[in-house]
Design a protein that fits this description.
Layout lengths: L6 H7 L2 E3 L5 E3 L3 E3 L8 E3 L11 H7 L2 E5 H9 L9 E4 L4 E4 L2 E7 L7 E6 L5 E4 L15 E4 L16 H12 L5 E5 L3 H11 L6 E3 L1 H12 L7 E3 L3 H9 L3 E5 L5 H7 L2 E5 L8 E5 L2 E4 L7 H11 L3 E5 L6 H12 L3 E4 L1
Parallel strand pairs: 3-4, 4-5, 5-6, 10-11, 11-19, 12-15, 12-16, 13-14, 13-15, 16-18, 19-20
Antiparallel strand pairs: 1-2, 2-3, 7-8, 8-9, 9-10, 17-18
Helix pairs in contact: 3-6
């Protein structure tokens, strides 16, 4: 299908590209969430692996690495070492100018420290990259050109149960604790969100975690995560707690010890966003999937686009998701020019 674009739209599109190395690039000056050798600054929107592509190359070759202070601390906990002279940490809404662009980071509801990027060009045009986000609690930025994530960009990716997952998750953990330890598996960021949900829901059992999960959680607590009663699993105190069999253990979903953890748990919970039919799904007599997502579903993606009022939308096809489908649906439903890149 041929799409005819106006001069204004083409001028906006000339300011952005997405590379096959996963970089969102504004005006060849700024690269976001991927390595681009010519950029003067690499921005990291958050500390998830699929937004850290080429970070070590960026550390070697780009003059500045910019991010929120929380993201910097989480990256440090994950083992990244960014030289002090290249590190540029920003508060939300704090502006800095580089070349023709005035840049700022804005809150995104995703993981602690996650940010959207706003770049205002000298001609006043507003270039926005959402990074990963979910609604509500993510401010929707006005844009002329909007680059949006597309993880759940298919119309089939709608969760009718968005607002009941947390209470069901809390109830499931409460039901498991009287019978022994509960083990929760997920990615960094989602695990910390799960801890905060359980604490806010009245779960007062000790939380235990292996080294990296523990360190990432401490970094998140430093920046506002409301979690108490966490123990590193190799301490004597944690070992004593584990002998009591009354605790919640949080482990990375790709942990090599996952099979062992399943054996010693009374209840195992896998946190995933790729579940759309029901909030809880039982896999066997002691394993459940909980549909806890930190991404916007299809309806929320469209809501962001509509309220942002862009002249043109670019959907990010460099990461897992449904970018081409989302672009088509934006054109059809909202009558806004939209293309998937790269």
């Amino acid at each position: 299908m041929t799409i005819t674009l106006s001069k204004v739209v083409n001028e906006l599109l000339s300011k952005v590209k997405i590379t096959h190395e996963h970089a969102i690039v504004f005006k060849d000056i700024v690269s976001i969430d991927g390595f681009y050798s010519e950029s003067l600054v690499r921005i990291v929107t958050h500390a998830h692996k699929d937004h850290l592509y080429g970070l070590r190359d960026s550390i070697r070759k780009n003059p500045l690495i910019a991010m929120t202070k929380a993201t910097y601390d989480i990256l440090t906990a994950l083992g990244y070492r960014i030289p002090k002279e290249k590190t540029f940490t920003l508060n939300y809404n704090q502006e800095f100018k580089i070349g023709d662009l005035t840049l700022s980071l804005h809150k995104a509801k995703h993981i602690v420290g996650a940010a959207q990027v706003l770049a205002v060009d000298n001609d006043g045009s507003r270039l926005v990259y959402t990074g990963d986000f979910k609604l509500p609690s993510t401010p929707i930025l006005d844009s002329d050109l909007l680059v949006i994530e597309a993880t759940y960009g298919n119309p089939e990716h709608v969760r009718p149960f968005k607002y009941e997952v947390e209470s069901l998750f809390i109830d499931l953990v409460k039901s498991g604790l009287p019978h022994g330890p509960v083990y929760v598996f997920g990615y960094h960021g989602k695990l910390q969100e799960a801890m905060e949900i359980l604490r806010s829901g009245g779960i007062d059992a000790p939380f235990i975690a292996p080294r990296k999960v523990y360190d990432v959680t401490l970094a998140a607590i430093k920046h506002g995560l409301n979690v108490e009663g966490l123990y590193y699993d190799k301490t004597l105190e944690a070992e004593e707690i584990m002998r009591s069999k009354w605790y919640v253990y949080f482990a990375h979903i790709n942990s090599p010890k996952r099979n062992y953890y399943h054996r010693v748990s009374s209840l195992s919970i896998i946190l995933t966003g790729w579940e759309f039919k029901e909030p809880l799904r039982r896999l066997n007599n002691k394993t459940y999937i909980v549909a806890l997502s930190d991404h916007a579903d299809f309806e929320q993606l469209l809501e962001y686009v509509e309220e942002s009022k862009p002249k043109v939308v670019v959907t990010d096809a460099s990461r897992e998701g449904s970018a081409h489908i989302l672009a088509k649906e934006i054109r059809k439903r909202l009558s806004i020019p939209a293309i998937a890149l790269p």
